[in-house]
């Protein structure tokens, strides 16, 4: 076997390893979450029941993720405590859960600056144009301030997180 064949097989084994690692299926979540916790800097989101972590996801955020959302169009994900208050089964990004941003403090802060606080912050799946990237969507912050997960993860979150669940978004 010459060096070019060895290199080809090495690349093939490497790619298969990545595919297998990315396609491992976790056991189903049987409990309902009572809190969602987001760590923006780590790009992680956890579903919690009491003090128990039911599942951890790697997420994508807005294109300018550092800092609290201050105005419409700033590409930031808000920080603080909110509620997942309604859902959209026919979202342009597969399915989505709405974050109750802006709250009264967010509105007041935006008003003092003479800007709109924005809104429609969601946890959502992938837009049909990018579903092919799967879990690799997390290599880039691509949302407009929302929290992006894969469609399979969104299905799981959809079942495990009832409307009215608290979401805390940390820097």
From TrEMBL:
Signal peptide: none annotated. Residues 34-170 form the L,D-TPase catalytic domain. The active site is at residues 124, 146. One of its GO terms (biological process) is regulation of cell shape. Pathway: Cell wall biogenesis; peptidoglycan biosynthesis. InterPro entries: LD_TPept_cat_dom, Transpep_catalytic_dom. Keywords: Cell shape, Cell wall biogenesis/degradation, Peptidoglycan synthesis, Transferase. Belongs to the YkuD family. This is L,D-transpeptidase family protein.
């Amino acid at each position: 076997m010459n060096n070019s064949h060895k290199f080809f097989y090495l690349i093939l084994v490497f790619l298969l390893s990545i595919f297998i690692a990315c396609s491992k299926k976790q056991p189903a979540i049987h409990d309902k979450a009572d809190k969602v916790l987001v760590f923006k800097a780590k790009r992680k989101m956890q579903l919690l029941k009491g003090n128990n972590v039911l599942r951890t996801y790697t997420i994508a955020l807005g294109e300018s993720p550092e800092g609290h959302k201050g105005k419409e169009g700033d590409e930031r994900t808000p920080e603080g405590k909110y509620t997942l208050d309604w859902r959209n089964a026919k979202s342009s990004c597969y399915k989505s859960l709405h974050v109750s941003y802006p709250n009264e403090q967010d509105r007041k802060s935006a008003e003092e600056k003479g800007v709109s606080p924005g809104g429609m912050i969601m946890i959502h799946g992938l837009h049909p144009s990018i579903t092919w990237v799967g879990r690799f969507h997390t290599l880039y912050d691509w949302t407009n301030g929302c929290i992006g997960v894969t469609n399979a993860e969104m299905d799981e979150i959809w079942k495990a997180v009832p409307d009215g669940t608290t979401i805390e978004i940390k820097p």
